[in-house]
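Researcher: We're teaching a course module on how sequence relates to structure. For the next exercise, students receive a sequence and then see the predicted structure as tokens, so they can try to spot secondary structure elements on their own. Here is the exercise chain.
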Amino acid sequence: MANIKSAKKRILVNKKRAERNKSIRSSVKTAIKKVKVAIDANDKAAASAALLAATSAIDKATSKGIYHKNTASRKVSRLALAVNKMA
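Model: And here is the predicted structure for the students to work with:
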């Protein structure tokens, strides 16, 4: 454990942020999984609704600095492509 007060604070802050990031990343993964499940079930309406929710979750995570903007864009693009191929 660190001896300096500022170093102790950094440890606590980093731990708190890591937990927050993990939680948000997990919720994004869940949203993506819902889209994939709807695609596998061949349910276009559910897939479109899930895509909207997943896109929103990914964008929120990006705005909080959890994903790089290009990573987020790639994830959204791949999901949208998969849903559009269902037609």
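Model: If you want an answer key for the exercise: The mean pLDDT is 95. The two ends are 57 Å apart (CA to CA).
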